[in-house]
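Q: What does the predicted 3D structure of Methyltransferase type 11 domain-containing protein look like?
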Amino acid sequence: MNNRSMSNTYEYGDAEYWDARYCEQAGSSFDWYQRFSALRPFINKFISSCSKILMVGCGNARISEEMVKDGYVDIMNIDISSIVIEMMRKRCMHIPQLKYMQMDVRDMSFFEDESFDSVIDKGTLDSLMCSTDASFSAFLMIEEVNRLLKPGGIYMLITYGDPSVRIPHLNQPGCCWKITLYIIPRAGFESVVGSSSSLRSVMEPVPLTEEGLLAPEYVLEDPDSHYIYICKKMED
Ligand SMILES: C[S@@+](CC[C@H](N)C(=O)[O-])C[C@H]1O[C@@H](n2cnc3c(N)ncnc32)[C@H](O)[C@@H]1O
């Protein structure tokens, strides 16, 4: 899945769309954008294995199960699709570290303020950004994520959205983040030997300008790269 195939598609914001999709995919799993193996160094670096984690828009991805195998002990998974939540509950009933609840990220009032150390979002803000009321939905979701995080907590956003289209939403009123950006090529992308991106480690943060944009000289070799925003919740 890349930027172009996800953009201009209002269905991604609809619960009905996801229910129908997950009915078709019964019994299977699909990890959007990146698998755990590619994300593991970032998750291990920023999220401690004993932390309380909220996986928003979990879908039927394997990432939470892989995290448990890697030592993570407390992951609450939510999704707007009751179909996928029921499937995942059955699939993971033998894994006590994983809990599943049907919930809309725009209203997570079930949880008290500052209930989580970390929130992981792989493709869910992106889905909301494809809905007809994209900006308002994104506003509600980010407000909720901010409310649920403890001070110093981490919102890890994995997205196809570059800083010009994601930082303005992240920096909405009421939120105070320290944002560090990483960029990883899509799975299977081979960079040209000797190019600037082949020489750069994906674990090197990508500098942002004061306006929160990529520096003009930054070369994005794979146009379908994914962006990992590490947003640390700061005291106001
Ligand atoms: C692009 S998929 C990503 C699934 C999974 N995170 C992954 O990485 O493979 C987006 C997920 O967000 C869920 N979703 C969409 N809108 C939502 C909302 N308002 N609240 C909760 N989940 C939502 C969808 O049901 C879907 O499972």
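A (community wiki): The structure tokens above were generated from the sequence. The beta strands are 53-56, 75-79, 98-102, 116-122, 149-159, 177-184, 226-233. The first strand starts at residue 53 and ends at 56.
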